[in-house]
Amino acid sequence: MERLLRQYKEQIEQQLPTYIESLQAPQTIKEAMLYSLRAGGKRIRPLLLLSTLHAFRKPIGIGMSVACALEMIHTYSLIHDDLPSMDNDDLRRGKPTNHKVFGEANAILAGDALLTYAFQVVADDKTISSDVKVRLISELAKAAGPEGMVGGQVADLEGEGKTISLQQLEYIHRHKTGKLLQYSVRAGAILGEATEQQLTLLTLFAGHLGLAFQIRDDILDIEGDEQKIGKKVGSDIENDKSTYPSLLTLDGAKKKLCDHMKEARKLLDEAKIDASLLHYICDIVETRDH
After folding, report:
1. Which of 35, 98, 122, 232 has the fewest CB atoms in 10 Å of its CB?
2. How many whole angstroms separate alpha carbon 41 and alpha carbon 135?
3. What is each CA distance from 176 to 32, 95, 197, 213, 253, in whole angstroms?
4. Residue 258: pLDDT band by 50, 70, 90 thresholds?
5. Where do the domains of the chain lie, and which CATH numbers do they carry?
6. Based on the number of CB atoms within 10 Å of its own CB, is 190 exposed (0-12), middle (13-18) or buried (19 or more)?
7. Are 248 and 256 within 8 A, CB to CB?
8. Alpha-carbon distance 24 to 15, whole Å?
9. Has residue 231 got a pLDDT over 60?
10. How far is 63 from 127, CA to CA, in rounded Å?
């Protein structure tokens, strides 16, 4: 499993820069886009998409454009998150953040460029039928926009410095992190020609996985290794943010993580697919140290 995921990740890493390098655009914006795309990371979203295709025994090549588009949107969100007006971070994955290297204006534009270009990448894929393409683009826009990631980010900002309920915290995480993770699995299932029942089960699976992913993030902000994470730990406490450990205690957050992972694995089994890779990703999410 590990070897296959590493192989998928290498293919994503090779493919991503080719989209940017072929652009007829100013060199500065291309360099700024590539800088953040090449900064590394888990590539969990494209890997989820390709692993879902694998579960339906489909060639992963049919999902490569959508997988790369997903990573572009995720990367744009990180560039904007790091800006002084948002989280004001100097480091991302152990390297200076985009605005520290290219300046705030170019960092904003690099994020804008990655967001808009992501939809072009999907639209230009000649191997996907028009009907499926429209569905994928529509769902991606919803997952990334005000009803998804952006809405979650706004709710997160509004929750800073306040004590919020567990229900409000889950809303933030289901949208800020969860919607794109959910889309990753749904896109793979749609391209894999899943039945409606399978799509429903996999959507629920991805919902639990998304919450588990964020809970693990909250835990790592307390007991993680800065060298492995690539950024300062304790920033949630410093920014007075409500987190799963702050609302449930550290042990309570760990139990919640375990509960979500148990439910996620159960739903995977109910989908009646070759979910070996997706189960392996569950293990990674639950135990990751960065």
Report:
1. 232
2. 28
3. 24, 23, 26, 12, 18
4. very high
5. 2-287 (1.10.600.10)
6. buried
7. yes
8. 18
9. no
10. 10
Alpha carbons within 13 angstroms on the beta-carbon side of residue 179 total 21
Q: How many CB atoms lie within 10 A of CB 193?
A: 10
Contacts of 99 (CB under 8 A, 6+ apart): 79, 82, 83, 84, 106, 107
Select the more confidently predicted residue: 140 or 229: 140
Mean pLDDT confidence for 267-288: 95
Give the type of residue at 183: Y
For residue 117, pLDDT over 90 is answered with yes
Longest CA pairwise span in the chain (Å): 52
Helix H segments across the chain?
Answer: 2-21, 27-37, 44-55, 64-81, 98-102, 104-123, 130-144, 149-159, 166-173, 179-191, 196-223, 226-229, 235-238, 244-248, 250-270, 276-287
Spatial separation of the C-alpha atoms in residues 70 and 66, rounded to whole Å: 6
Q: What is the pTM of this model?
A: 0.94
